[in-house]
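User: I'm writing a tutorial on reading structure tokens. Could you give me a worked example: one chain, its sequence, then its tokens, then a sentence or two explaining what the tokens reveal?
Assistant: Sure. Here is the example chain.
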Amino acid sequence: MKKEIFIGFLVALVATSFGCFLFIEFFSPLDFYESLERIKEGNLEGKVLVLGAIANFFVFFVFLKKKQIYRARGVLMETFLIAFIVLLLTLFKS
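And here are its predicted structure tokens:
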């Protein structure tokens, strides 16, 4: 059971990272590293993380469709972790 939750957590972490990468690549006119610098300068890390975490919806519903409940639970845990990180970024950047 713990292994399945951990697998779901890791898959969600990869999905979030991939979602952030896709967002930066497709919606920024700059190259990837310049975009990262602009994101840091503008304190937009939280917003990019939230947009990247949208990919977790797809992973979550795939796991539910396949009846892999514990993996879906891991995805949900990672999504809550991202939400907590965004909350901390928002509180301490202001």
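What the tokens reveal: Helices lie at 2-27, 32-41, 45-52, 55-65, 69-93. Residues 2-93 form one domain.
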